[in-house]
Amino acid sequence: MAPAAPPPARGPRLTRKPQDHSAALGCHLSFSLANVTRSSTVKLQVVSPARLLHSSCSLEKTLQCSCSFHGIPTPSVRWLMGGVPVGVNGPDSGLQVTSSITAPWANSTISLTGEPEIVTRLRCEGKNQHGIHASSIFLIPDKNSISSVFVKGLIQGIVYGAIASALLFLLLVLLAKPKPALLEEPETPMEYKAETSLVSVEV
């Protein structure tokens, strides 16, 4: 009985990483008994969805939040304030967004001048064709800001209520004012002219 053939030798296993995308991989085979040599080179294709690797916020004179994404292809980054997209590289209602891309990295920073008047959700979103990754930050105003907004709304309500009450009062006065009675012209009595005849009597 012939001895069993040894199993084919296996080379080292390659673990692909995102940074290996587009790298050249060479394979060289040599059969010494048959004096045959084969070589081949392939380009690695590594698929990587958008992934948030870092996010932070700091508050000094302005509130600044940053997000860093990684992915292949390089993700696009956008910010949303209260569910509404914020313009890129330009002022937008006190917001300014600055983005930079160094493949396969995408970095973006948003600056907020002033404090939000109400609790608002700020969302940083990275996206490529293989997936979306996002992070949400809730901006909560301090108590003084909330109380000032309340007082402002209260004053506006009092002013608008006073105006509405004055208009309603004026309307009621106009409706309740009695209408002047129409004066009828008195009838002019007919003038009767009586003819008087003079009769002379001689004595």
TrEMBL record:
Keywords of the record: Membrane, Transmembrane, Transmembrane helix
Topological relation to the membrane, as annotated: Single-pass membrane protein
Entry's transmembrane regions: 154-176
Domain of life: Eukaryota
InterPro entries according to UniProt: Ig-like_dom_sf, Ig-like_fold, SIGLEC
The UniProt record lists the keyword Cell membrane: no
Places the protein is found: Membrane
Name recorded for this polypeptide: SIGLEC family-like protein 1 isoform X2
